[in-house]
Amino acid sequence: MKRTAAFALLPLTALMLSGCTLFPSAADHDKAAADTLKNSFQARGIAKLDRLTQDQANAECATADATGKPLDEKMSKVIEEANMKTVKWPTDGKFLGDWKEGEKIAQSGRGLTWTDTATTENGGNCYNCHQISKEEISFGTLGPSLYNYGKLRGVTDPNSAGGKAIVEYTWGKLWNARAYNACSQMPRVGAPARPGVARQQVTTPPRWPQATGVSC
Length: 216
Known about the structure:
Layout: H1 2-21, H2 26-40, H3 56-67, H4 73-84, H5 99-107, H6 149-152, H7 164-175, H8 200-203
């Protein structure tokens, strides 16, 4: 009787083992997700399907996030160095513009959507993640508060030699945050990943020294 029962279990065991060997791999899941995205989106206006293509930073950081394993130091350095090469420094040496215009950019979330055109002035949508001024009470908290950004970093005059390092860092951070933090969630405002972003958006941070700088 016991022997009969054992034989009866053999097909079930084989089925279970077969199921284990056929279980979708992580690569299968990634491909299925990519195919679903590709089939769900369509190119409209300036929003093309190439936006679904991940660069190295997006791919590596997404994998690290999904697996719960931090990006290793070597890969982080590779990503940061590659993104640093995309930062375009001002040829005229002027890092600052009109902060009032910067405030307008920080408030605006327009740009790069299928309803926009290639000539639409892109906003920074900075308040979506940061507090910048006390006057604006609607702001996100995904990113740190930027109120008193310059003052907290010891900058009283952004045009002085003493403020040069912070001003240059701020420019670079705005242009491409992943040059400083491989898996930063901050939009790469001036990088190739966001084409068409005007230089003015980097040179006109809102309210220096009250809240200048990393406005996105």
